[in-house]
Amino acid sequence: MVNFTDRELGNMEARIALLEKELGEVRKDTRKILSTLSEAQGGWKTLMMVSGFSATLGGFISSLFLYFPR
Description:
The longest helix has 60 residues, at 6-65. This protein is an all-alpha fold. The termini are far apart. 86% of the residues lie in helices and 0% in strands.
């Protein structure tokens, strides 16, 4: 069995505390990234709907001009 001194145990406890703190920060950052991505996903859907509607309207208007004499 390995015998640890108090200093080694203290050192390990400090390192574990630091790792727990950093893990908490990583979790917060991950939540922020997920929140930003979910907001951007709605924006992309809206952009695609507007561009699809614009393309359809533009195609319809250009097809009407084919029937008018010059």
